[in-house]
Amino acid sequence: MTTIADIRTQAEAKMKQSLAAFQNNLTKIRTGRANPALLDTVHVEYYGSQVPLSQVANVSLLDSRTISVQPWEKGMGAKIEKAIRESDLGLNPASMGDLIRVPMPPMSEERRKEMTKLVRTEGEQAKVAMRNLRRDANEGVKKLVKDKLASEDDQKRAEGDVQKITDRFIAEIDKLVAAKEAEVLAV
């Protein structure tokens, strides 16, 4: 039997997962600085199957504007370079022996504004997800009241608690959005 405490705990756990997914999406948004997580979406052909770049090479930072990719096998360099070039990240890798350098091109002012819009959009989608989870939790509580398993006072208290949890996560999203915007706009 589900209780109000269970509903509250489940809602909070789902909101945590949603926040983690949002943070993961933010790492993929390009800023002026290099970030190895940027290449997480790149897949390379390896013995006939597509695998994430991190499974065939060591990805790290050379400096604030350059990512280095060190293939673990000799013949993989050209395939990795091709995969990075063909990804929709707009990067132009350069081989230096068995090390591949991926310089981050400086972003134009227009591109920075586009990226901040993208950050805001991601933030808004994350907030909508939080509100949907809040609605689901409140509906669960209403169902308990309807089935006479909880009182209306319990319902009001539970809805207040769920709202506080939701507000906390939405404030966290706002903080992350503001930090990412500052990072994108920093030259």
UniProtKB/TrEMBL annotation:
Keyword Protein biosynthesis: yes
Classification via InterPro entries: Ribosome_recyc_fac, Ribosome_recyc_fac_dom, RRF_sf
A Pfam short name: RRF
Localization, UniProt: Cytoplasm
SUPFAM superfamilies hit by this protein: Ribosome recycling factor, RRF (SSF55194)
Superkingdom of this protein's organism: Bacteria
Keyword terms of this UniProt record: Cytoplasm, Protein biosynthesis
Domain Ribosome recycling factor, chain residue ranges per copy: 22-185
Family membership noted in the UniProt record: Belongs to the RRF family.
Function of the protein: Responsible for the release of ribosomes from messenger RNA at the termination of protein biosynthesis. May increase the efficiency of translation by recycling ribosomes from one round of translation to another.
Official protein name in the record: Ribosome-recycling factor
